[in-house]
Amino acid sequence: MREAGRVVAHALAAAREAAGVGVPLQELDEAARSVLAEAGAGSPFLGYRPSFAPVAFPAVICTSVNDAVSHGIPTGYRLRDGDLVSIDCGAQLDGWTGDAAITFTVGTPRPGDLDLIDATQQALDAGIAAAQVGSRIGDISHAIDTVARKAGCGMPADFGGHGIGRRMHEDPHVPNRGRPGRGFPLRHGLVLAIEPMLMAGGQNTYRTDSDGWTLRTTDGSRVAHIEHTVAITDQGPRVLTLP
């Protein structure tokens, strides 16, 4: 899984490097596709069609811009100065899967965007630190929620992290809110995708675009989404989606 995670990290870096004012989102997807192809990796996103989706997902990355929470489809939309961009990417290599997401600004950051990204990173770091053998899913959830609440941010109630291994989405679900000491026990060898999504407006509600995929905040506030695939080991949590 570490090798699949490494491919994800390189694909995200390539997509970010391709981003700039005037660049269409499709070019970011093409950059990530090239990395996957060079590594001989497949995409768990491309062709994915869960029960809620009217069509299969047509890309290898999700590109969620400004008020988009997640699942944004890379289109011909050209990035503008001040856009806040979240990219989610997965890779399948030798039967194993990695999944991660990053958020960054294009051009001149809007007021508050860097603070939002920082708070989301802090929430992820807290969630990872809580991913210890002998703890429970609720400990991760509570750690993330504590940071989000302190920052005055909302989070989409129905979405969170997940188990990951042979497939992208496996049990257990990892909510971004929860009570410490509750939920699935964490054992050596369990691997989770931990992914806080912080909504700057402080609300937790969202709506779905007409494409059936893109989720947006109902108040129009901006969102940051950062994710890592993390292995729980007797030596502590190990992040698998680093370069």
UniProtKB/TrEMBL annotation:
Reaction equation(s) it catalyzes: Release of N-terminal amino acids, preferentially methionine, from peptides and arylamides
Keywords assigned by UniProt, alphabetized: Aminopeptidase, Hydrolase, Metal-binding, Protease
EC number: 3.4.11.18
GO cellular component term, pick one: cytosol
Classification via Pfam families: Peptidase_M24 (PF00557)
Catalytic class of the enzyme: hydrolase
Residues annotated for substrate binding in this entry: H71, H169
UniProt superkingdom: Bacteria
Amino acids binding a divalent metal cation 1: D88, D99, E227
Family: Belongs to the peptidase M24A family. Methionine aminopeptidase type 1 subfamily.
Name of the protein described by the UniProt record: Methionine aminopeptidase
Organism: Streptomyces colonosanans
